[in-house]
Design goal:
heterodimer, A: 9 helices, 68% helix, globular, B: alpha+beta, five-stranded antiparallel β-sheet, 3 helices, 7 strands
Chain lengths: 206, 198
């Protein structure tokens, strides 16, 4: 609506909460549902996605003057796929167990549309510092979303957080929380909560 | 956008894509060259860890690695595994091939006489989550233990007959199941004669 392009700071802040990729835009649902059974894989995924997003945004911003409109999506995909392959190899070399646990979800970062949407919306139009700030903001927002869902699921489902016991050992682990239905339930409840809070804030302001 | 025909020749339009393709290709080759040995090391460590699971009675510390030439004329690495007492417990063959989604890498355990498969293990797979990725599950892998290594495995969708070397497919993942059986068949077929000669 505004007639100026968002500044770097606006991009950074917007990505974290006001335009949170998961809670506000409902993008990146595949990893959001699939790897949030525990905090450790969720944070690994958030880190890998952040690496790809930041690298791809910077690369696209650097070459934005050379892009041809009808070939731009091809260039975005090529760039993203390259950085995903690098992330996949680095995980296999240094975090082998985690890489096996995440399995196909690492290569699937290529089709995570929150990355290509940032290339299209921001990086292909704005300068490097803005694209970098945008990528960092969205990465933080994504990590926050995955972390919150994974925290609920791991604590209720296994009684642990980041592998450390946080609930008494007589806690009856809610098995459903670590299974796929738990992902949908948690996402739905947290999404509702975020909406409710935002709604209350809007009413409060006006 | 299509109304204005893009001006210039093919190269003027596509040079960036071609250039980036070459640049990225080179970068990935560099990453693979520098990280490849480390990934291979991780796999080898995992192989040693699971040897006792796929060859009963084997002690991973009593393993020798051999490189033999298979029927396809290429060198293949095999593991000769022994019990803690030093007796031959069997063989472990690394095997790989195409699955439904991507490459599948397996370890195939055989008894000392090469009569039977003692177990299999999935080192790497990227099959469909919720369907094909169950090839890594214990319940699927144990369908291979005890099968004859003398004749090819067959994949059936229901009622496998005992004694006929039939593997029950995972429901919803017939192609992944068949891929695993084919990879096992090919590896055994490729290395049976050279292993007999050792």
């Amino acid at each position: 609506m505004s007639n100026h392009d968002p500044t770097a700071l606006e991009r950074l802040i917007n990505g974290i909460l006001p335009e949170n990729p998961v809670y506000r835009q409902l993008l990146g649902m595949c990893p959001t549902l699939a790897v949030t059974g525990a905090v450790k894989p969720a944070m690994t995924m958030a880190l890998a996605t952040a690496f790809v997003l930041i690298s791809a945004n910077c690369m696209v911003s650097l070459i934005r003057g050379l892009l041809r409109p009808h070939l731009r999506i091809l260039v975005f995909t090529l760039t993203i796929a390259t950085f995903v392959t690098i992330a996949d190899r680095v995980l296999a070399a240094y975090l082998y167990e985690m890489s096996k646990q995440l399995g196909p979800y690492v290569p699937l970062i290529i089709v995570n549309c929150l990355i290509i949407s940032r290339c299209e919306i921001c990086a292909s139009k704005q300068s490097l510092p803005v694209a970098l700030a945008d990528a960092v903001g969205v990465s933080l927002g994504f990590a926050l979303a995955l972390g919150s869902i994974a925290t609920v699921r791991e604590v209720l489902g296994s009684g642990t957080w980041f592998g450390l016991a946080v609930l008494p050992s007589n806690w009856p682990n809610w098995g459903i929380m670590v299974l796929p239905p738990g992902a949908f339930l948690t996402l739905g409840i947290l999404l509702g909560l975020v909406e409710w809070l935002a709604d209350r804030r809007r009413k409060h302001v006006t | 956008m299509e109304t204005k025909a893009p001006g210039g020749g093919y190269l003027r339009q596509a040079w960036l894509v071609i250039f980036l393709g070459l640049l990225y290709g080179g970068a990935l080759a560099g990453v693979q060259t520098s990280l490849g040995p480390r990934i291979e090391q991780n796999r080898r460590a995992e192989t040693y860890r699971v040897i006792p699971q796929i060859v009963p009675g084997a002690d991973a510390a009593q393993t020798t690695e051999l490189t033999i030439t298979g029927r396809d004329g290429k060198p293949s690495r095999v593991y000769r595994v022994h019990t803690a007492g030093g007796q031959l417990a069997g063989w472990v063959l690394p095997a790989g091939g195409l699955g439904f989604a991507d490459r599948i890498d397996l370890l195939v355990g055989l008894d000392p006489e090469l009569h039977a498969i003692t177990g299999i293990y999935v080192l790497d797979q990227k099959e469909t989550p919720g369907l094909g990725n169950f090839i890594s599950s214990e319940s699927f892998r144990e369908r291979f233990a005890g099968m004859s290594a003398g004749e090819p495995l067959m994949v059936v969708k229901e009622n496998p007959t005992a004694g006929r070397n039939e593997i029950l497919a995972l429901s919803g993942a017939t192609i992944s199941s068949e891929s695993v059986a084919n990879i096992v068949n090919t590896a055994i077929d490729n290395l049976r004669e050279p292993l007999r000669g050792l």
